[in-house]
Amino acid sequence: MLAAPVDVVPEGPGLVHEPKWDGWRCIAFRETGGVYLQSRAGRNLTTYFPDVTRTIRAAVPAGVVLDGELIVWERGRTNFAQLQRRITAGRDLLRLAHEYPAHYVLFDLLADAGGRVILDLPLGQRRARLERLLAGAPTQLTVTPQTADMRQVADWLLHWTVAAGIEGVVSKRLSGRYESGRRGWSKFRTRIVTEAIIGGVTGRISNPETVLLGRFDSRGRLPYTGRSHPLTSDQRAALAELLSPSRMPRRGAVAHPWPEPLPASWSGQLDRPEPLSYVQVDPTVVAEIDADVAFEHGRWRHRVRYAQARPDMSVYDAPLLLGEEKGYFGDLG
Questions:
Q1: What is the model's pTM?
Q2: Which of 189, 213, 235 is the last residue of a domain?
Q3: Which residues, in sequence order, are CB contacts of 38 under 8 Å at separation 6+?
Q4: Are residues 147 and 240 in the same domain?
Q5: FRET pair for 112, CA 20 to 30 Å: which of 51, 267, 277, 292?
Q6: Distance CA 189, CA 278 (A)
Q7: Rounded Cα–Cα distance for residues 269 and 8 (Å)
Q8: Which residues pair with 305 in a beta bridge?
Q9: Domain span including residue 34
């Protein structure tokens, strides 16, 4: 079951809210002979998480199907990069699992012991069975917090985002059944309003479709930091008047700081990323953007929302790559 993005956290009778963890969504099948872990996209994750499969095998009876989020803690915060390292660890996988053990944070139970499917039961009943099932389980298997108290939700968004690294809040109806593939839940992402420098566009300079962004680092370089969602027609027309092609470098000057196309690895996607063809522009225009808090290793993992160009700002007024950003949490009501 999936969640539809919303701009405000919904309120009302029968609604409950859970932290949106910064990890990988995972369905766990406790089979008679072992455990099978499946990503949201259907990818087999079993071999990458021997620590989690071992714990499930020991603590969960055969037939159970669980839904939750794989996360890795480091210094009290979730660390998404440590999850990604599992895929490429190779021979270092067991050492990595020992040094940075993964946790499976559960929020739903899809099948009971013996394999009885309970998708049609209300969420409240599925949750109660999940809590009973995991009573006394190791800390690697944890039921996610849940609340109907908006004051608690506000505390999560204002404090847990920084302290624990959650991405926002998922809202659900206690009476709702589990409908695979349907966006019957709501997700509110904690967001920031900030600025970045436009270094390229997809489409044409005269009609930019998306913008590619960067920020100066402390050495004066302009690393790539992310890409926007598609621009509206009004945004395209206004931005086209400000963009100019990348200048040919003078002798001794530096060419455009990014390769064309952008390497596939820069996208940060898990499943089959591809190089991105784009048009390099002179990096002289500052963009105001709305981004979520999933920012690691100098890049936003998810696309940002382009708001407007800021011709009143110099590129040297934009935040540095390691600079502080002002948090924006939207309307909680």
A1: 0.73
A2: 189
A3: 26, 27, 28, 29, 44, 45
A4: no
A5: 51
A6: 28
A7: 27
A8: 290
A9: 2-189
pLDDT of the residue at 116: 95
Q: What's the length of the chain?
A: 333
Angle, CA 301 vertex, CA 180 and CA 94 arms, to 5°: 80
What is the three-state SS of the chain?
CEEEECCECCCCCCEEEEEECCCEEEEEEEECCEEEEEECCCCECHHHCHHHHHHHHHHCCCCCEEEEEEEEEECCEECHHHHHHHHHCHHHHHHHHHHCCEEEEEEEEEECCCCCECCCCCHHHHHHHHHHHCCCCCCCEEECCCECCHHHHHHHHHHHHHHCCCCEEEEEECCCCCCCCCEEEEEEECEEEEEEEEEEEEEECCEEEEEEEECCCCCCCCCEEEEECCCCHHHHHHHHCCCCECCCCCCCCCCCCCCCCECHHHHCCCCCCCCECCEEEEEEEEEEEEEECCEECCEECCCEEEEEECCCCCHHHCCCCCCCCCEECCECC
- C-alpha distances in Å from residue 243, one per residue of 72, 113, 139, 208: 41, 60, 53, 9
- 220, 123: one domain: no
Residue 71 lies in a domain: yes
Residue 181: half-sphere exposure toward Cβ, Cα within 13 Å: 1
| pLDDT, tens digit (0-9, with 9 covering 90-100), for 219-254 | 899 999 999 999 999 999 999 999 999 876 555 445
12 and 150 belong to one structural domain: yes
What are 146-197's pLDDT values in tens digits? 999 999 999 999 888 767 878 899 999 999 999 999 999 999 988 888 999 9
- What band does 330 get if pLDDT is binned at 50, 70 and 90? very low
| Residues pairing with 174 in the sheet | none
